[in-house]
Amino acid sequence: MFDVAIKNGLCFIDGKFLEASIGIEGNRIAYVGRDEISGDLEIDASDKFVLPGLFNAHTHLAMTLFRGYAEDMPLMDWLEKKIWRAERKLTPEDVYWGSMLGILEMLKTGTTAFSDLYIHMDEVAKAVGETGIRAVLCYGMADRGDEEKARRELEIGTEFVKNWNGAFNGRIKAIYGPHAPYTCTPEFLKAVKEKAKEMETFVHIHVSETKREVEKIERRYGKTPVRLLDEIGFLDDKTVIAHAIWLDDEELAILKNRGVSVAHCPVSNLKLSSGIARVTEMLRLGINVCLGTDGAASNNTYNLFEEIKLTSLLQKVKTGRADALKAREVLEMATKNGYRAYGLEGGELRQGRLADVIVIERRFNHSPVYDPIHSIVYASYGCEVSHVIVDGELIVEDGIVLTIDEDKVVDKVERLKEKFLED
Amino acid sequence: MFDVAIKNGLCFIDGKFLEASIGIEGNRIAYVGRDEISGDLEIDASDKFVLPGLFNAHTHLAMTLFRGYAEDMPLMDWLEKKIWRAERKLTPEDVYWGSMLGILEMLKTGTTAFSDLYIHMDEVAKAVGETGIRAVLCYGMADRGDEEKARRELEIGTEFVKNWNGAFNGRIKAIYGPHAPYTCTPEFLKAVKEKAKEMETFVHIHVSETKREVEKIERRYGKTPVRLLDEIGFLDDKTVIAHAIWLDDEELAILKNRGVSVAHCPVSNLKLSSGIARVTEMLRLGINVCLGTDGAASNNTYNLFEEIKLTSLLQKVKTGRADALKAREVLEMATKNGYRAYGLEGGELRQGRLADVIVIERRFNHSPVYDPIHSIVYASYGCEVSHVIVDGELIVEDGIVLTIDEDKVVDKVERLKEKFLED
Asked: How many angstroms separate the CA atoms of A240 and A59, rounded?
């Protein structure tokens, strides 16, 4: 008798879909196999798909508040005239409600864990606690060459790690989030990395998202961002870099040698006309690549199924090969690679792993099902998720998020938008 | 008192979303405005979005049967070893059920009309008749240099036009569908166009989808496909070319001067690693560009919301400008440009237009709504469509397709797939 038994589904196990049942005890997967099992809570998954939960590896969650706020604008106008100006108005309460809306969308579309870099992070942590989702959180820091600011930012970041790491039965992992090499000095980045090592935790940072940013770093320091980071000892297997688009071969080799993970954000990278990352080559080199949506202002959804399909499509056109990047690889990027990037034991339907599991209904758009992996990767809309379990707890049942008052969150966010319209 | 009154929605009118009600009489829109109206059938659209129906301008509909059948393969293996071999097994009955599944998916995701080029087209026409959707249909012809075959193909194509053009209250428009310049000789293409002129109807053809195909035509005829077609008098405002990826500036000018429409299929073009069409430039030149999904084997859905979002995203990265291609332009490509391409008076919420109208629910993923156009274009999944009206008739109500037995169609297609698994 397990705490939870997910019975007779088509389960994504070791890269294939097999008929199996999943038994959960506490917050871990305790059984995967074909025996008839039972549980205090039983979910009938016959004729459904069962997957490890999706991991959204790069978000600025509360930017749901700016979903559709500024569209189809040149990048710098978008940032400087709209987004940064609006962000200055954000209160902790705004971030709380924006995060609730983001978590609602992620849970409904099968994401069980996310990695967020933003501000007012206590509020994000609070939302994670209440909703039952899993998260890797960091306060987004930037010194912009100001030593006093550097000291203060690192203090806030460290305070956050101390206060929240391991909270809610370990559902929160608190890490460090220096924004990017073009907004942080090498001295600051070095200090952050040292502090992260002292605290035995991870670092999440934006690297080489735009060509322009790489050129700026080259002009300023005479070297590219990855080389710069490597020289100051920043890169190791507790470092996750987001975007990583404008990299040369030697930089890819550095990432591989240091064990750095990459959070690939294809929708955002297109929408901001940043470019298309060299994902196929990264995977061939053995770099751990996972998937993220980035903030809602440049996506505009937190539906990871869009990133899954688009990741595959873009690599096919980028490499000129319709056989580039297999469905299995992309689905693993969206699941186990995300958990692995941040040192979490999840993202696989395997005994001993964290019990973050989703159940997906079989719908008309999946039909006919030759191999479920292609139905999931190429034909899902994201709205077919029926059940979501995080840390052993049932959080979504028949598409309803049990821990969130959906109408209240949507109403609240609709009202909050007013103040951003003033400019 | 109208036949149908869609009341108090946020309606897409002349490129903007405005509060309005829509009155329908027979198969035409009879009223658009702010008066209090009533109807024999009333749909309360308050707090919902009302749009002209989407037009899927390039499909091989019954390829739903091959959705997920062959994936992540090199293009020629995919075609020759899998798709063409499987298509040889297709019976008329298979095409009927595959078409039913395709229509089901299109209606559920807000597509009110489509343009299909395939085989056993009587069955597609039958499915269109039963389900109530609107369609432009053609029998896909290829002579491959065989004069006897050319004669036979044109006969079948003409028979189809004669039998079905105008059927079901005009819901079917029957046209000609020569496959492509690399499978049809110039003589055959010329004969087809002459016949189409005689019958006063349109021609739908694949042009310049792959680089390889353009090179083949250049080797064979000493000129590119668009120049070849222009020289034989094939190009005019009753010609719709699908894909149109590998075109030079002069070819774009030819398309503009001749009034040719282009059906852009971004998902399929990525999936088969064909390339990214020069859509932004085409629109700037004034070419009428509409959107298509292509067949389900290379997509794998008929959810036009994916093409809408991806069209915008791809142009932003292709042009290097985040302000390339506005949301309004893309939404018009998906609606009025499609109808216009095939000479149909629809795709707009305007008095006198065909009454093909969809209602979309406002959901969490749209929130907050700063401007509905961005909610629709960038944040929709496709599963938010609640009501679909085609030719004045209500066909989808609260997400249920009234004219199709969904379970029966899905069951049937699941069983049909078996025979394609034999190889």
From this structure: 13
